[in-house]
Amino acid sequence: MLRHNDLRILAVEDEANLLQLVTAYLEQEGFSVKGATNGREALQHFRDWRPHLLILDRMLPDISGEEVCRQIRRESDIPILMLTAKAGEDHLVEGLSLGADDYVTKPFSPKEVMARVRALLRRSRADRLPQAEEFRFDEDRLIIRVARQEVLKDGEPVSLTAAEFRLLVTLARRPGMAYTRGQLIDKAMGDDFDGYDRTIDTHIKNLRQKLEDQPRQPRYIVTVFGTGYKFGVEA
């Protein structure tokens, strides 16, 4: 198992004092940390250094945090903790829709950031524990391999975030069973998840865009009105 000093965290923040503060707390916890003050530098460090987790400010002076998040999500499923000064629920849900796994609003306590970092890393490592499960649906058009964290649609790999993968596996384990948003948070996101029920809706919307032939008329991830969601295709 990786120790803290084996774990690399890339912190991206254009305010030098804030970046220094976050970096100091991370290093005090024993993490290996690299800092960046703009989007181009962040992408370069990500590709050269391959961090285990990214702390990403939404407002950057060159490339926006949103665009950095989009580009990294095309290449990796590492946990992304987004920092945002926009505290409205719609802004937070928008951040999750870009591929972030969690968010912290400014001003924030460094201790809160540390708690979110530890929770994301805990969930990320738990996702990588070997589980001898494979689910095949729709005459093998959709295949989910839990141990490999791999999803195939029509034989082609589908890139999912860690949160999307956990939600999909939770639903696919019990086709036809309706889950409330609260149950999905408990089962897929963990007790330490601190977010809105609407974040589940955002992850579900992203999953439909990636998996469904017709996202507006989903077959795999079906809305159960008045309850929540279920997996609609039997194995």
UniProtKB/TrEMBL annotation:
The modification 4-aspartylphosphate is found at residue 57. Residues 8-121 form the Response regulatory domain. Residues 132-233 form the OmpR/PhoB-type domain. Residues 132-233 bind DNA. Gene3D superfamilies: 3.40.50.2300, 6.10.250.690, Winged helix-like DNA-binding domain superfamily/Winged helix DNA-binding domain (1.10.10.10). SUPFAM superfamilies: C-terminal effector domain of the bipartite response regulators, CheY-like. One of its GO terms (molecular function) is phosphorelay response regulator activity. GO terms for cellular component: cytosol; protein-DNA complex. The keyword Protease does not apply. One of its GO terms (biological process) is regulation of DNA-templated transcription. The keyword Transcription applies. Keywords: DNA-binding, Phosphoprotein, Transcription, Transcription regulation, Two-component regulatory system. May play the central regulatory role in sporulation. It may be an element of the effector pathway responsible for the activation of sporulation genes in response to nutritional stress. Spo0A may act in concert with spo0H (a sigma factor) to control the expression of some genes that are critical to the sporulation process. PANTHER family: ALKALINE PHOSPHATASE SYNTHESIS TRANSCRIPTIONAL REGULATORY PROTEIN PHOP, REGULATOR OF RPOS. This is Stage 0 sporulation protein A homolog. It comes from Heliomicrobium gestii.
